[in-house]
Every structure is written in C-alpha cells, then in structure tokens.
Amino acid sequence: MIEKNYQPADIEARMSVVWEDSLAFKAGRPDRRDAVPFTIVIPPPNVTGSLHMGHALNNTLQDILCRFERMRGRDVLWQPGTDHAGIATQMVVERQLMERQQPGRREMGREKFLERVWQWKAESGDTIINQLKRLGASCDWSRERFTMDEGLSKAVVKVFVELHRDGLIYKDKRLVNWDTKLLTAISDLEVQQTEVKGHLWYLRYPIEGKTFNPEDPSSFIVVATTRPETMLGDTGVAVHPEDERYLKLVGKNVILPLVGRKIAIVADDYSDPEKGSGAVKITPAHDFNDFEVGNRHGLARISVIDREGCLDLVDNEDYLRDLPEGAAQFAEEFHKVDRFVARKRIVERLESFGFVERIEPHTHMVPHGDRSNSVIEPYLTDQWYVDAKTLAKPAIAAVRSGETNFVPKNWEKTYFEWMENIQPWCISRQLWWGHQIPAWYGPDGKVFVAETEEEAVSHALGYYVEQEVITAEQGREMALDRNKREGFITRDEDVLDTWFSSALWPFSTLGWPADAPEVQRYYPTNALVTGFDIIFFWVARMMMMGLHFMKEVPFSTIYIHALVRDEKGAKMSKSKGNVIDPLNLIDEYGADALRFTLAAMAAQGRDIKLATSRVEGYRNFATKLWNASRFAEMNHCAVPDGFEPAKAKETLNRWIAHESAHTTREVTEAIEAYRFNDAAGAIYRFVWNVYCDWYVELAKPVLLGPDSPAKDETRAMVAWARDEILKLLHPFMPFITEELWEVTAKRDGLLALAQWPLKPAEPTPEQLAMLAAAAGPTDPLVSPMLVMPIFDHADFTDPKAEAEIGWVIDLITQIRSIRAEMNIPPSTLTALVLVGASAETRERAPRWTEIIKRMARLSDISFADRAPDGAVQLLVRGEVAALPLKGVIDVAAERTRLDKEIGKADADIKRAESKLANEKFVANAAEEVVEEEREKREAALARKAKLLEALERLKQAS
Question: Which residues form a coiled coil (predicted)?
C-alpha cells in the first residue's frame, strides 16, 4: 500500500539498505557472468572531502550511466575509492594537533606522525563515501579502494621504478611552484591566480662603460618589474631582436644596480617592444618565463630567495660569485629578510641612488597556494620529473585516431593544446603523507631506485664494491647485518604528487600489477565522467600511464561536464557566500529531486545555473508521480499475467503504448549520446504531461465507470505504463522508483536489476563475431540476446491512435491557451465550431465530446462549413476550429490591455539591448550580470511574440 504522503528521507534510508543487502551493485554477479562488462572508475574524491555540488553532478551522471547499463543487462563495475590527498590530509592532521595543543609533526617524527594520519583516516576518512551513498551512487562498494592501499602502493612503486629504468623519470634542478608556508612544491592545479593591486617599478640599469646619469637616457636601459626584490638574482636583460632602439646594445652588458654584477643584454622574442620600455630583466631562478629565456642564452641561475620566502645571500656561492668588492656587506644586510620587507627596503635603496625612473599603480594576477593562501614563489630546486613529452605522444595519437573520444568534442582542442606543449611533470613533494619515493642515496649522493630497500641495498653494495669504495668482505657483512650498513644509504624523504598515483587508477584499482582476472575483464573502462579543470592533471596522465603500461587507452569516452553555478550564473565560492550545500538540499527535498535537477540542466557545454526553486520543482514532480501511482493503486490498476500492451483494443490505451515506445527511444538514444538533459526532459514530459495530465485524466471516465472489458484493459494499461515510467525514470530518480516498484509492481526482483524497456534486437552474425572476440576464451558468449547493447528502435507504433488522441489533446490545449490569452474566466463556457471537418474528425468528435467540453470549458460543439462572425480561428492538425467570442469578451478593452503589455515588453527589450550595446558594460560587468541581461532580452522578445499572436487572434473576433 502506497503511503498517503511522499517522504523521501524514509524511502532513501530504506532503499539504501535493500540495495546493500541484496548486493545489487556488485560487479561479477553470477547472473551477469556472461554479460558484456561496462566499467566506470569514480574520480576519487579527497579523503578529507565533503560532498559539494561538483561531486553531486559528477556522480549523478555516472550513476545514470551505470544504472542504465545495468538494466540493459551489462556486468557493471562502477569502481569507487578515495584519494589520499597529500597536502590536504597532512594539513588537516597538523591543524588538529595544533588545536589540541599536542606536539607538532616535526616533534613527533615521521613514523609517529604517519601513524596519527592513518588513525585520522580510519576515524574520519569515510565521510564523503557515506555522503555519496546518500546521493544514491550505485558503486560496487565491496571493491572500495584507497590510493595508499597496499596493492595500489605496489603499483605506484613498480611504475616509478620502470619509468626510471626507461629514462622517463629523472632528477633535475628546475623551477617549481613553491609554497613558502607549507614548504613544498605544489602542482599548477593547487595554484590560484588572484588579482592584486600592486605597483610596476621602472628601474634604470646602467650600461657598462658609460657613466650613469639619471638625466642621460643613453647611459642606462629602463626595465619594468612587479618584483624588485628578485633583481638581486638578475643575470640578463632581454630586448626584442628587431627593436631598433637596442640593436647596438645586444651583446653588451649592463651593471646590476646595488649589486654591481655585469649582466648580458640578449636578443629574445620574449621581450615585447610594445610593452613598457621594450626591455625586460631576466631572473632565471625566480620566473618561469625567465627560466626558459635563460636556458636559450646560457644565463646563470642565481637563487636569492630561500624555502621560507626570505632573501638568502650570505654563503650563497652563486650570488657571491663575480661580485665587486664591497657587495658582500650588502648581502649581510639583507640576509634572511622576508621577501616583501626586502622589496620595500630595496626600492628605497634604488631610489636613493637614482635607479628608479617611476612607479605606477598596477593591477596584476599573483599566484597563491589554494590551501595556504600564501604567495607562491617560483623556486629553483632539485626535484623528480617525468618525461611527459615522450609519454604524451601515444596519448595524443589515441585521441586523434578516435580510440578515445571527448564529449563534447570541443574539449579535444584543449587536450591537444596542453599535450602538444607539455612540460616535464614535477612529481616530488616535500611532505610526509603520501607514497615515499623509492630512491636511496649512497654516501657520495649516487641514486639507487628500487622496489624495496633490500633491493636498493643490494644494488648499492654491488656498485660500491665495484668502485672499491668498500671491500667485498665489507659488502657481504653489510648485506647480512643491517646495523653495519646503518646510514650507508638513506631514503629520499620526499613523497610523490597525488596525481601520480591517481594516474594509475583505472588499472591499479583492478589489481595490477598482479595478474588479476579483473584487469582482463574490466580494463579498458568504457567512460570517464569528469570536470574540465582536471583534463590536464588527471585525464591526460591516465591516458599516458594507461597506454604505456597497459598498451590500451584507459577509456573509450571522456564526458566533460560543466560547472554548477548559482542561479545568477556566478561561480560558487565561500567568499561570495553563494555556496549551495547538496546535503542541505537532500535533507529538504530528497536526493531524487536534486539528482533530477542536475541531470535536467546538464546540457553539453553549458554551465548549470542552480536555483533551489528548480530542486523544489522536481520534488513536486516526484510528488506528482507518487500521487499518480497512488491513484492507480486506489483504482485497482495492476498488470495481469500475460498482458500484452500491443494487443490493447481501446484507442486511448493504444495511444499510451505508442507514446511510451516513443519516449523509451528518446530516453535511450539521449543517454547513449550523453545528452542527459534531453533524456531527463523526455521522461519529465512523458510523466507529467502525457501520463498524468492527459492519459490518466482521459482514462478517468472509464476507470470510474461501470465494470467492462474496456475498464479491465484500462486498469492494466495504467499500471503497465506506470511500470514503464518507473524503469525509464530509475537511473535519474532511483529511490522513489525502487520504492514504487516494490510496492506496486508486485514482481520478484529489484527495479535496479530489471530489464530496460527497449529490448535488444537480434544481433547480426558480424556483431556476434565481434562480441565473441571481445569476450575471449575465458568469457564464453552464452546469451547474446541478453547482453548485446544493440537495440531495435522499430518498437510498437500506432499512428491512427496517435492521430485521434493527439487531435483531442491539441484541440483542448489550444482552446485553453486562447481562453488564458483573452482573460476568459473559468466559469464562462464558450461554444466550439468545427469548420469544414473531415470524415475522420466527424467520426471521432462524438466519442470525445463530453471530455472535450469538460476539459476545455465548452458549452457546445457543433459543425459548420464556415466560421461564424466574431470567432477566433484555430488550426488543429490541419483543420479549422472556431471559438465565437462576440459578446463573451470586451474586444476593445482586451486590445487596450494587450497593447499596454506589448509596450511593457518593448521597454524591457530596449532597456536590455541598451546595456548590451554598451561595450564598457559588457567588458566590465561580471559574466553572470551580462548573461542575466541577455536572458531578460530573450524573455521579453518571447513575451512580445506571444502578445502579438494574441492581438492578431483578437482581430478575428472584431
């Protein structure tokens, strides 16, 4: 029995237990042993994370695909898991220690600190997994993985060792994004560009051999900088090779102010003659672009800022080299001074000597750490790198050849641009929490990379015996006695970038490098659903690693979803106070309503503008389905054994079968094409408009009438159509549909495992051969009819039934529209004249007269050869119907009202177009504000079009 009121919280808790107890989502179920696999790996959320709207969208779309394919008979593996999130997790635990006034990380030591992190993970690390379950995610939770599980850690070590052996991992001194607060390198993804109001300092650099005179421009070159403190590390000045102002100076030197070091003037395209003075200072150790310029011209790299963001000048051999006498004193004065304090002092010193030409206010983007919020420093340091350029080549080719496809396709361009210009990938992090790099250093600094410490020791002892650093006897003793080799080799303290381990996710989660049967069955995966912001950091790296180690692409389709923004189109952020918490929406409206909202708005390539009112609206949609199902139950609607909808006799019932087949095709094709919004839109229209508003309403006279064969058939068809709805809607709204299926369908088995309404077609011999080849000898093809993802779209149709019921619906709809346009009160009944009606219309009209009169508020329906005077004419499926309105409405007053409304619409259009024509407004206003004006204009234009149409109709009644 269906409860009177729809209560999503009760249903969600109950259905979650039902699914879990029945192992509904387990991959490799016995009944799917011979089915074709369908695999998706979840983008592993950070173990520190909590469900946000991006997660809700991403996982809703994945779940739609998984539930859809599970119902189509596939052996679905939706692989869940979490990422250890190196920096984020370490920060959480360190903050916790600080808040509890307990010893910090350094005081505890590495081993004890890591024990504490694992303890935190055991206590709090499953938060987001439980929240994903609340959303309804149908992952195989028995296979949950963590990037630092033992098996995944083995995969990480093996990959590192093999790439190092192949020369694709190496150590190098390069610039990195350095967080001076967290004291580690961070990835580009962890850097946020923040607009800052600062200054641009124009500095005079004296030309060697000339007497510096601030009044004589020929005695110096002017360079502009936003970071005067880095000038201490300048090793060159660059000018454009075609800039005639400086051609004679190329190859000469300038004298670095304050320091006195001679630095070269070089010609390089990096310098823009149109910007500033056309000359730029080059600091290779403190700027990524300058680093490349320095490489091109062999300029020295002098690092003058240390790990903590302070000037590092004393005992800095690179800085002190080639300094004139007296400069060392300057070094001591500024040593260990914070970079921003040093900036102010250096500018003061430069001004006192006349080296500052001018200072201008300057707004520019400054990189900040997304977690520490400190200004990121380009820092020259030894780090481990992956030769991404070599690994990228097969990954580029795979997308170009179509082995892997992006949806929408335009994201391929972004992928190619990144991959074709890819830089070495810095994979080392100066943290404790993470996969410790499997590299050990000998007493002379030689590196030994190995999968285990014992293997590294063996390599090291062999090497040093061969080099005669130790004797063979010493080597044997050290191999046997750990104490005798203590300190002989030491392990690299750094850990790997979290993206390194997550790059292996599609195959490490399946058991690789062990010879696990799951690797053979579920790799490669079918689809990856992710956001555009990690195409470079995760998608590209999975492509590279998958192709290198598995020799196959990790997924055939990459679906890139858009951002979820607030209702005005602004990006959600805590600082704006516009963050919408999905868990609050689930609490208030239910997970189904939130899921359907996100799916319905997930148009390819378009950001989602999420308003709470939309979620509330889809909660009402769920309530509508609930009430319709309850109405069916109260009227004893049930599907009898052996019922065949295609054999229905009643026109109305054949029509709903026709519409159901049409909607099933629409929904199926849309999900297959990743058009989630179109699929949601099709099922929404069918449930609300077709089934509830029309079919149930048109069926009520029969259902409420005397017993008859027509009533029996209609009861069966109402229930059958309801069950088809539950199947089609299940991937989008799993909780309510499973509940109604259990209560009303009265069938054995779960809806989650029921067969999708569109049945497989008979496969061709070629398709059977392809499936058998894909299955292989260990996965025999037993039931191709069950597993083939090939469907016959030529399902049930009845054009005659559609023509008749469609005519009834269109006629009532147009009459209602005109009554609304003309402000005709519901209590006022109007007549209807069918003009020059065809034989079909004359034959069908009497069958539906009473229903049309009741639903369209008519007093009478008649036939005539011509429309009466003063009637508004309608064109319904090629035939004319007329509503005589003379005496029913005040035509003059109605025309005045419409003219007034058209004037308001014109004013709104003009106001919006005026703003949009203002280039300054479009350039300076926030993106969401401009978009809002565009929407206002479009809404006003649409409103005006409807008003003009109504005015034109009114002329007919004059």
Answer: 895-957
